[in-house]
């Protein structure tokens, strides 16, 4: 009931984030129902049905990442005096976030079920029934138990991820000593820079391992008969397990290395004798590296996979369900970046107010934000291009 009342009185931006989460959960539920219908229509194709179900884990992982970002940006994720009065302290806030995420995911799953039955032609009382009966597998009525179980995967996963994200943890970082700031540039030198994220060497190693694994998979993997590990028709349908594993390693390496790359960019902007503009931009990147790095890395990896499919001339082989899965991953990646950017801007408001009281011009703050954005674009556009080349390199295309 408290989650319902908070949803009714939420800001439109909060409702938009929850609607985005519900849409992503609905897309995952639609893909899971399609895999279940394929298994019911092809009782002898157990391996293909299992692969279709397993590859739904990719959009499910993107949905979980979006739910984590939404939980961190939720106003209920920050305990306030009003919540403390009704007994919602830091220990119960994760439960409230889990209920909100589960409600959004459940709404999306129910919508996915209705839409799936409508497009397949099972709901004849509604208009536009059966318009996609040729694209969706038709294996008769869906098993009730399996349908409920699969539709509950996305809401339960989003709820668990949200609760674990907001779980109270003791702070390991010592509180900084009070510093009297009298100069505009001195505020960015008041604390030492945060440590370098540990994902950069691991991500680089993982990308190198992925290249080796995909190259070892075969001289011409795209000429293999369509009996591979991707539930797709055409060339990609014959990709071997080694090639798929190498691609997954490359994509995971990009996501792991992204926070370290942003941290290095912040260090480069802050080295030497920088002016106030470079110093503010560099320290901002250093503070935001861990928070913004993973979402930016996931967006870069998702764009790299789509561009690699375009370069291999196999994007048309995805089919409607493959296109839906790709759209869910891209929308979740873009939504996660947008939610994280809004959260970062909210967290920077006290420092921005202090800078304004010290006499900083608003044009200076806008310039620092433009330098940060330009640096991220200058880093992640080449990183995306590099990931595309690494994915397509073993194929000889």
Could you give the topology of this structure?
Blueprint: H1 2-8, H2 12-41, H3 46-54, H4 57-73, H5 81-85, H6 93-120, H7 144-151, H8 153-165, H9 199-216, H10 241-270, H11 276-311, H12 319-347, H13 349-357, H14 362-392
Helix pairs in contact: 1-6, 2-3, 2-4, 2-6, 2-7, 2-12, 4-8, 4-12, 6-8, 9-10, 10-11, 10-14, 11-12, 11-14
Element order: H for helix, E for strand: HHHHHHHHHHHHHH
Give the mean pLDDT. 79
Q: Please count the beta strands (DSSP E, at least 2 residues each).
A: 0
| Intertermini distance | 56 Å
The number of helices is 14
Label the structural class.
mainly alpha
Spans of 5+ residues with little confidence (pLDDT < 50)?
A: 170-185, 221-226
Number of domains: 2
Strand fraction:
under 5%
Largest sheet: none
**Percentage of residues assigned to helices:** 55-70%
Radius of gyration: 24 Å
């Amino acid at each position: 009931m408290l989650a319902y009342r908070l949803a009714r009185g939420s800001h439109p931006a909060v409702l938009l984030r929850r609607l985005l989460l519900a849409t992503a959960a609905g897309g995952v539920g639609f893909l899971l129902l399609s895999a279940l219908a394929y298994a019911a229509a092809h009782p002898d194709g157990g391996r293909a049905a299992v692969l279709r179900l397993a590859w739904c884990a990719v959009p499910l992982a993107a949905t979980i990442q979006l739910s984590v970002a939404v939980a961190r940006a939720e106003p209920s994720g920050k305990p306030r005096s009003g919540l403390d009065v009704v007994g919602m302290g830091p220990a119960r806030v994760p439960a409230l976030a889990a209920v909100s995420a589960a409600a959004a995911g459940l709404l999306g799953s129910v919508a996915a079920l209705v839409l799936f039955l409508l497009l397949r032609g099972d709901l004849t009382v509604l208009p536009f029934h059966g318009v996609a009966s040729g694209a969706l597998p038709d294996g008769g009525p869906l098993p009730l138990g399996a349908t409920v179980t699969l539709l509950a995967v996305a809401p339960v996963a989003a709820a668990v991820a949200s609760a674990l994200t907001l779980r109270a943890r003791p702070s390991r970082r010592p509180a900084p000593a009070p510093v009297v700031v009298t100069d505009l540039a001195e505020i960015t030198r008041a604390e030492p820079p945060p440590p370098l994220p540990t994902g950069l060497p691991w991500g680089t190693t993982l990308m190198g391992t992925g290249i080796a694994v995909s190259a070892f998979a075969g001289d011409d993997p795209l000429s293999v008969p369509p009996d591979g590990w991707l539930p797709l028709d055409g060339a990609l349908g014959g990709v071997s397990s080694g090639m798929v594993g190498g691609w997954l390693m490359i994509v995971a390496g990009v996501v792991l290395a992204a926070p370290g790359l942003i941290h290095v960019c912040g260090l480069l902007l802050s080295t030497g004798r920088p002016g106030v503009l470079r110093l503010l931009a560099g320290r901002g990147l250093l503070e935001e590296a861990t928070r913004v790095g993973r979402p930016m890395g996931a967006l870069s990896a998702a764009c790299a996979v789509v561009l690699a499919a375009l370069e291999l001339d196999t994007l048309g082989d995805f089919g409607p369900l493959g296109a839906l899965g790709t759209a869910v991953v891209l929308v979740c990646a873009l939504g996660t970046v947008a939610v994280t950017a809004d959260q970062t801007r909210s967290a920077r408001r006290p420092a921005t107010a202090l800078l304004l009281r010290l006499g900083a011009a608003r044009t200076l703050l806008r310039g620092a934000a433009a330098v940060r954005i330009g640096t991220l674009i200058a880093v992640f556009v080449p990183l995306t291009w590099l990931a595309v080349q690494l994915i397509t390199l073993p194929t000889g295309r």
